[in-house]
Each structure stands twice: as structure tokens, then as C-alpha cells.
């Protein structure tokens, strides 16, 4: 039996990743082997040319938190971030007692240079530029604004590893950048993150901080290693059951409830709080998983682009708003916009297809937007778009036939 079309739920995991995770589960001696992390760092940095050094940590949010503290961000400083983002981004700012300054988005779901230039001021000490869905932000204008005011740019490449802008790799345009190896990202080791840095002084500062971090505990490592393994067992039965209660959903709920599997975002984070496990070193076991995925990056991204081309072609006159075509985009998910996104999303779900809902609100997931200091009305375009974006799957094992099924499904849900 095959996995159903599901945008989430370990979408990058292939058979060799599952076998590797099983082997690692039974080799605790490798869990905290730093050599494996060094190997990953060297190969990762090499993809960006010889000017860069890479530093691994246990998540993208840990990477961002370390970068912000190394840049000296402290109480009452402002850090510009875009609306339509993951709670991990404003939280990293808030955990340092600084203030997220929300900038509206343009129609590519990326930071609007116009709103940026209107909102930044004396207190703005850094700008985080997110390349949403693997599509580059408008870097020329953003860099111009930042350079004029001497504000450092942190590129958030959590969704954009391998993407390009002006033929340059994303992550090499700003002052420093970070990547995520989270379960729904471009490549996955369940949890994991990487800092990419070319400034030697800043690198040495970050290296010192990172080397003094602890590793997450063995229970945490076991929990993550089980993720690809258990999901590969559950997924083929995900939609089997009666009505809304299916075997897969029930199993996933129970495994998460009893702490056998983790969630991508902890409940404390939805309230703005920091779980103890961030920041921490990247365990060797996850470095091995991430390196195995890194070797597949080019194939993964080529596939994503091919699937995106199918959506571009087949949804041309469907009444759904498509994104702009762009050669450098890697389309970790393919975002389309429709007024009735929620109905379409639910219609697909009833037919056993799980589409994505990034970003159903200005910041996700949070209990309440005030927790992350977002003031209603401050980013009107983002608020207008939130809840109207449907993410179509592009993940590595999605076949072209399945992409065509998604197209048909969308068309039937529209009628
Ligand atoms: C845009 C963006 N930035 C940063 C992060 C944080 O990455 P991680 O989940 O590895 O902590 C995420 C994760 O969800 C994200 O979507």
C-alpha cells in the first residue's frame, strides 16, 4: 500500500532514510558523535563556495536564536520580520526580550520592501528576510534599504535550501543566514538547523557559543529517530477507517499524546515560551540523517520544479491565483490563492488528500497573536492573504500522476 497524497507527515522520507533511522536507533554509540556533525558542516558549507563556514544546531529556531544573540540583539531592540511566518521566528526575537517589528508582505508572500522602508527606525537592529515557499524575496531593494542604515540582514532559508536569486544561492545575499532540516522543510532530519556565515569574527563567536551548548537528551534523540520509521508504517493506513476516525489519524494522535513522537512546534511555543531543548547541539545521529538527505537535494529540488511546472500549466485558467514563475524558486510547497481556500482544503481532506494551510494566520501556530506581539491591522496584505493560501504538494515521492490528481481534485472542489 502507498502513502496517500499528504503534503506534511515526513514528506521527504524515502526508504533509505527509514533504514538509516532504524540502524541509528540501534547504534546509540553514534548518537552524539561530533565527527558526523563536522562532516555535515563541511559538505554543507562547500555547496556555497569556499568563503563560507557552517555551524549545525538542533533546529532552525536554535540557529536564529544564536545568530540574534551573536549580533548583540537585546532588550527593547527591534528586529524586522515579515508577517506570514512560523511562530519560531518571532519567538527567537522575543526570547531575547527584543521586539518583533512586523513588516507586511508583497504578493509573493515575502517581505515588502516598501513597508520595510516605512517601518524601520532607530531601534531596528536586524532584518530577517524569509524566502517563503522557496521563492526569493526582493533582495535588491531590501539590501539597499538595509545597507543605507547599516542594519544586518539575516536570511531565513528554512524553506529555501538550493533556491537562487539573480543566479546566486539563497543564503549568500545577506550578512548571515540559517536553514532548517525540520520534517516539512527542503531536506529533513526531523529536527536540525544550520548557520551559514562568511564573517570570520562572527563565526568564531558563534562557534564558541555553539560548542558550549549541551546535546539534547537520549530520549529526545530516540523520539526523533522513531519519527520517519513510525510514519512510514502508519501512512499507508492513514485514510483507512470509519468517517473522520481513521487508523492513521488515531495512531498519530496517540503517539504524539504519549510522547513517543514529537510535534514540530511545542505547546509552550504557541504561548511564546521557550522549550528547554532549544538551543542545543545537533546530535551526530541527526547529522548522519541530514547528510544523507543533503546528497539528494538536487534531485529533490529538480522534482519540485517539475511538479510546479505541472501546476503552472494545468491550473492556468482554473480561477485559482497562481504564483509568479521564477527560475530560481525551489517550491518546497506550491502556493495558490483562492477566496474559498478553507472549503477547498476541507473538500480535499474528505477525499483523502491532505493539502497545506501555511499560512492560515499572520503567525502560525499560536494560541493568540498578542502572544507574539502582533498588532491586528499592522500588516493588512498579510491579513488579507492569511487563510486564503492553499499549499499544493511537490514532495519527492509525489508522482506526476498524483500531481495531476491534485489538479483534478482542485477543479472538482471548485465546482
Ligand atoms: C520560515 C521559517 N523560519 C524558521 C523556522 C524554524 O525552523 P525549525 O523548525 O527548524 O526550528 C521555520 C519552521 O517552521 C520556518 O517555517
TrEMBL record:
Q: Does the keyword Glycosyltransferase apply?
A: no
Zinc keyword on record:
no
What GO terms in the biological process aspect are recorded for it? Answer: polysaccharide biosynthetic process
Q: Which residues form the active site?
A: 185
N6-(pyridoxal phosphate)lysine modification, residue list: 185
The record's listing under Gene3D superfamilies reads:
Aspartate Aminotransferase, domain 1, Type I PLP-dependent aspartate aminotransferase-like (Major domain)
Q: InterPro entries per the record? A: DegT/StrS_aminotransferase, PyrdxlP-dep_Trfase, PyrdxlP-dep_Trfase_major, PyrdxlP-dep_Trfase_small
Keywords of the record: Pyridoxal phosphate
- What domain of life does the native source organism fall in? Bacteria
For this protein, the record's Pfam families field holds: DegT_DnrJ_EryC1
Q: Which GO terms describe its molecular function?
A: pyridoxal phosphate binding; transaminase activity
Q: Which family does it belong to?
A: Belongs to the DegT/DnrJ/EryC1 family.
Quote the protein name from its UniProt record. DegT/DnrJ/EryC1/StrS aminotransferase
